[in-house]
Amino acid sequence: MSTVEAQDPAAFEVACAVRSLGDGTLTADLRQEWSIGHHPHGGFLLSLIAKAAVAVLAEHGDPAAEPLVVSAEFLRPPAIGPVLLRTDLRKVGRRATVVAVRLEQRGRSCVEATVTAGRLPIRRPEWTDLNPMPAEPPPRAIPLGGDTAEGAFNLAKGCDVRLDPATAGYLTGRTGDPPRLRLWVRPRHGLPDPYFVLLAGDINPPVVFNLGRFGWAPTVQLTAMLRARPATGWLRVQVECRSMHESWFDSDATVIDSAGRLVCQARQLALAPAP
Q: What's the whole-model pTM score?
């Protein structure tokens, strides 16, 4: 990362930096550039929690640890500003180590998560089944940024996000399209890494926009599985919903890198905005 990028608060690596206070406690700053409106982005919080867990493992003598799974319960939305991350090393294993992480602000727990860490695979997969999608966004892909249906998409300052208009009927006023979206994303500064991939698994507008449900859709539970380190270039994101029952809906995201490899699977349960 260049000197300019290192000083840019919109740079992902700068924004998700954590600082150790010792005894498994760390601090971080939630920045406006990585929020949706006034709410810190859920995928960004997952990245920050994974960073905290890996930083603590490095302090315990495992500097090569990488996040494999992050599973988080969103108890209440934190505000933009400083947060405290408390960690608890729950299991140390040869293949998998488990760290509990609690993100606190003003004495209240906001997000509680479990991070499973180990070594990401480096060999080619023996079997894979992925839906085809262009490696790069076509010219008709729509950049996300500024004021959108879900509020101010502040993440556009730090990452380039393009939406496939063929999957986003809500953009033209249709409300009966299936709740499925296709997107492309890459950081504006630096290269994608496993932490940015966690962000990519939650980068999409809520899929229920296609059903006419506009507004903030708070995540209740989000679990992301990292499958490989991403190659340089665009990340392809496919998102779909299996069912919406009353206010509850699920959202499954598949993230594929520029080399065509599955790098992340993310599933969440969220609350849909009122009709």
A: 0.94
